[in-house]
Write a structure and sequence with these properties.
Blueprint lengths: L3 E6 L9 E10 L10 E2 L8 E2 L1 E2 L13 E9 L1
Antiparallel strand pairs: 1-2, 2-6, 3-4, 5-6
Keywords: Metal-binding, Molybdenum, Oxidoreductase
Protein name: SUOX oxidase
GO cellular component, one term: mitochondrion
């Protein structure tokens, strides 16, 4: 399966101040494959940034859980 992901912070519709924004979420891939990358767009898909995966990496072929990710991005 392709990687699926959800944003958990900030919440939908939240007002965010200008400056640095931390976007957080989780991702899963299915089939025992680990998540190796999460791309995040903050402008409707025009540009993409690679999020940092958090936590320990699973044993190859035994990635049956989700992975946490985080992205630090500037906000105008």
């Amino acid at each position: 399966l392709p990687v699926q992901s959800a944003i958990t912070h900030p919440r939908p519709g939240a007002a965010v101040p200008a400056g640095e924004l931390t976007v957080k979420g989780y991702a899963w891939s299915g089939g025992g494959r680990e998540v190796v990358r999460v791309d995040v767009s903050l402008d409707g898909g025009r540009t993409w940034r690679v999020a940092q995966l958090l936590g320990e990496r699973p044993v190859p072929g035994r990635a049956w859980a989700w992975a946490l990710w985080e992205l630090q991005a500037p906000v105008a």
